[in-house]
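Here's a chain:
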Amino acid sequence: MLVLLGGVLFLRLRVTALQMLGVVITLAGVAIVASRGTWAVMAALDFNLGDVWILLASLLYAGYTLGLRARPSVPPLVFFSAVAGVAALASLPLLAAEVAAGRFFWPTPLGWLILVYVGLLPSFVSQIFFIRAVELIGPARASVFLNLNPVFGPALAVGMLGEPVGAYHAVALAMVLGGIWIAERLGARR
């Protein structure tokens, strides 16, 4: 939603009513996953400092996504390597603070496996594909697919951690995929 709003405000992108409807439906599907399909959980959600950090991260990622449209004309791998290098350098002061506070610890062997997985697939491969998607279809259309993240998270929890599957998972998946289909197929025709 932030990318779409930023695209309209800063890049003068045109958005159809059906595309907006698709985005709203996908966001509703995300809300169903977040609330585990229960209104009481949704009503009990409160706003805390972590939410502020997530909102800031979402704003920065929306800016990054919109900025991909004007990235230098280098291959996605080269661009991502530069961005990742800057991010790694920017995290060094936080690492130093953690070590100085005595809160640093080395990962376990399972932790190393998780780091390798996260480093290769969600952090590397998916970003290369996302950069290419923004290049091909633009930031507003590509960002709609980011709403799949809250669907894949529970899917991994079910598959890897043995979490129980609820009916709300199916409803949320249908809403997210249906919203993407509306935004991409029906909304793009108008």
Notes: The longest helix spans residues 109-137. The chain has a mean pLDDT of 83.
